[in-house]
Amino acid sequence: MSAAENLSLHDFVKTELGADVLDKLIHQSTGGDNNNKGNKYEQFFAVYKLAKYYSEKPDDDIEISSQDVGFVDDLTVRNKTDSSKKNYQLKDSKSVYWSNRRGIKPYFKRQHAIDLQFYRVDETEMILVLAQKDVYDRRSKDVPNDISSYTRCMYFPNPDTVNELLLESKEFKEAMGKLCPWPDETDKLEVVTQQLLGAWAAHSKTVRSVNELIERAKAGADPNFFQVPHSTLTLDENVTSTLDEIDKLRYEVKGGYLNYSLGGLSGFVGHKLGTPEFQGICDEIISQKPADAMALIAILVGNGDRA
Amino acid sequence: MISPAQSRTYRDPKDEQAKKLLSSLLVENVSADAYRDAMFRIGQHLGNTLKNTLDTNKSYCVVATVEDADFLAKGIINSLESYVNKVYLTCFWNDRRKVNDASVAPIYKKYFEEGFESADEMIVVKSIMSGSCVVKTNITALFDQVDPDAIYVVSPVMHAESDKKLERQFPRSISNLFKYVFLAKDNKSTDSGEVIPGIGGSVYEKLGFDGQKHKNTIIPRIVRCKMLASL
Fold this sequence. Notes:
By secondary structure, chain A is an alpha/beta fold. Chain A has 13 helices and eight strands. Chain A starts with a helix and ends with a helix. In chain B, the strands form three sheets. In chain B, strands 1, 2, 3, 6, 7, 8, 9 and 10 form an eight-stranded mixed beta sheet that branches. Chain B has a two-stranded antiparallel sheet with strand order 4-5. In chain B, helix 1 (about 15-25) runs antiparallel to helix 2 and helix 2 (about 30-50) crosses helix 3. The N and C termini of chain B lie far apart (about 55 Å).
């Protein structure tokens, strides 16, 4: 949000909600939590949402930010295509309440009013994201009636590491899996996740577009385990005719890589189709015409199938 | 200044064989052949240590890396295969690197011996346990298919904090299954993470490989034999 937009929001809040509410907004925006917005839980959740929106709504114009000023502001997602806004508040604590001295209901109500009257979106939703399952079980059952039409709770764990998150959260693993040609292989998903985290840390202060953030992650990806959509690259017929003669060999092109399995060994050639290195392997297969599994493995493993 | 010797703690200070075997890895300018032989004999020694704990009626899935398969892992398998019900071999070709400043070890190839999923427990073999990213990656890759009752993490030398680093990567339901079998723990490492004195340096070069890229172009003999038998 620019300084001019910030001022306009402040004007709106002061006029419509009162000076004391504006004070609370300013305090929230400049407080310690805000200055530490890059914490791990928020980063993990942000890349989860990045991946989900990118795969579920690839044609929508969606902006995502952890820098917005607001009352429910750990992460905001604005879909300009369907005029909707989702606001996420993340809590990893046992002390999360709707309505006590430090209850969060007033914040959700204020944000709802701001979304409809200032941002003028058609639909707005507040999501309380909880890291502790027992807290989620309780809070999801007692959402106050006066905010329940636009409020829900969500459980998202907060483990120490990406690997543990991929093991603990089926939803997180599935979201990352949608970006990767090997959706069940945690080692590849971990790499993709780290690349998204890197892009988020590097660019999210200046780039809001979901699609652009994902493209930035892909552009710098090495190794690149991102799905290649609508790839037209195929194997040369002279190569496939040789491969088809190898007993017990199974192969397919996934994510732009040649994947193979035989005799208990499975893997993929480390250079993508269309690269000079991969062409070198194809040339060798065509010229040597390996007739059995081990002769083929010697070409795939020895010449290009290296990390 | 703490000498390399002082930074090491032996699991069994009375195990003179272990001390001798580990010292043989630290010999200056040791040849690749001698180093490979030492790793094989260390594997046999670790296998004999494991026998005190393993169930002869159970089947075990050995989880090895390509560089360790023909030496350390083969020594362990050699020691155990006629002692327990069955030993299955799995082998991984990992590419260890940094992504977003995090250590990752994606798998480019893997070998799974037929029947490995029926193993009761896993024996994860690693020449040196330092940051644990390779061990973490390979346990994660296999866990759902094997669903082990226990996971033995077996290494000649472990860095003193490597077990905690490994356990951070897993929910408690999995890390509670880990049982560590080692000959020595070292509490020093270089800035780049190499354990001191560890196993005498980078294991790839010590074993005669020309670095990480080269070891990923090799099919270990033990894997090749099993593949040929099945093809």
